Amino acid sequence: MIIAWDFDGVLNRNQAGGRYVWEDEFTERVGQPASAFGAFVFGRPPMVISGEIDILDRLEEWTASVDCLLTAREILDYWLAADARPDGEMIQLIDALNRAGVRQVIATNNEARRAAYIADRMAMGARMERVFASGHLGVAKPDPRYFRQITEALGSTPEEMFFVDDLQANVQAAVSCGWQGYHFTEATRADLIARLMPGSLRAGR
Predict the structure, then answer these.
(1) SS3 152
(2) Least CB-packed of 57, 104, 170, 177 within 10 Å?
(3) What are the angstrom distances between the C-alpha of 5 and each of 57, 114, 161?
(4) Is pLDDT at 129 greater than 80 in this prediction?
(5) Predicted local confidence at residue 18, as pLDDT
(6) What is the DSSP letter of 70?
(7) Which is nearest to 131 in space by CA: 112, 144, 156?
(8) Mean pLDDT of 136-147
(9) Cis, bond preceding 142 (omega within 30 deg of 0)
(10) Among 90, 97, 105, which residue's Cα sits nearest to residue 199?
(11) Which of 69, 56, 83, 82 is nearest to 30 (CA)?
């Protein structure tokens, strides 16, 4: 089995009450509402999330069109740091799985710069066999091509893949590609941990 972890909402607790926690101080720090940032940077083609345009280039466009308190580079650095909220309980689980020799990867919808931040600054690259990001793959979940590329890159079969994501649509897409899927929520967190803990895996639970 190869466990493919979604990042945000599973390994990274960057959401609370239906909002992203980085939004809380965004207006005060940047001088523009978080909604305007999100709409301009992520909501228009060419798409940042699939790597069609570099996020820093898109931010340069945005800061040139509105009054901001920070430069494009400063906004990117602030956003990356504010959005880094690793889930300690899930980190303990993946570390335990690593000690047991279980193969693990990250399968995330993120552009290339944040994917690098996750891998390097958040040290997830050291914990995972690979960090697969939509910005590198050129396609985002729930597109079936996303899952096929990961399967091929790992030299695995779809049946070997166990995918954990907090969005049901992504889980369903993975299952339609032959992967095993698990919908992660706060209600299913304890069940997932019990199911994946190395002792449980050895017992065939």
Answers:
(1) helix
(2) 57
(3) 29, 16, 10
(4) yes
(5) 81
(6) S
(7) 112
(8) 98
(9) yes
(10) 97
(11) 69
Between vectors from CA 121 to CA 16 and to CA 56, what angle results, nearest 5°?
Answer: 80
Task: Take residue 88 and report the two structure tokens written for it.
Answer: 């300690």
pLDDT at 149 over 60: yes
Task: Dig out the tokens for 115 from the structure.
Answer: 């994917």
108: left (phi over 0), alpha (psi -120 to 50) or beta: beta
Using alpha carbons only, what angle is made at residue 183 by residues 189 and 39, rounded to the nearest 5 degrees? 105
Instruction: Read off the pLDDT of residues 34-77 as tens digits, 9 standing for 90 and up.
Output: 999 999 999 999 999 999 999 999 999 999 999 999 999 999 99
CA gap 190, 65 in Å, rounded: 46
**The pair of three-digit structure tokens given for residue 146, joined into one six-digit string:** 């996303």
d(CA 65, CA 40): 10
Report the length, in residues, of the chain. Answer: 205
Q: Count Cβ atoms below 10 Å from residue 84 Cβ, excluding itself.
A: 15
Beta carbons within 8 Å of 59's beta carbon, 6+ residues apart: 41, 72, 73, 75, 76
Greatest Cα-to-Cα distance within the chain, rounded to the nearest angstrom: 59
User: Region 113-125: what's the mean pLDDT?
Assistant: 98
